[in-house]
Design goal:
By secondary structure, the protein is an all-alpha fold. Helices cover about 70% and strands about 0% of the residues. It is built from 5 helices and no strands. The longest helix is centred in the middle third of the chain and has 34 residues.
Amino acid sequence: MQKIITSFRYLSWIAIICSLLGSLLMFIIGAIKTYYAFYTVFLEKTGNRLSHLNETDTASTYLIKSLDTFLIALVLFIFAFGIFRLFISERLPETEHTILGWIKIPNISYLKNILAEVIIIILFVKFLEVAIVSLEHLSWEILTLPVSILMLAISLKFLGLRH
């Protein structure tokens, strides 16, 4: 019975492969957004997609979006590696140096904490993007996003998933 139960750990390959494919997709999307930033500054001479912003501010918005996308790509990669280390690979001695030895994933709570921290950072970057894009039309409703981010960060601190 124990062999059957332990063999189910190989189902985690689904999460690993899908996370790696998602990471690859997000890297491509981030590269496209970076391309749009260059295109806006160097090639787009008449008008831009965000008419109230000049070319450099529009490029900055695209770069902020690409930063957000690359962050998601890296987290998906770390998540895939963490699942692999926790469920698939045999436990390696701590002294053995691997290529990704700097990624220390001791348990699933650590992975959840990384995911929660990234969600907070993504929301922060989204707020920055919204604030830049709607700079001329800011209202008090825009404060709901940073207040939500603050509440999420405080709740994450109280949860203390890493300990």
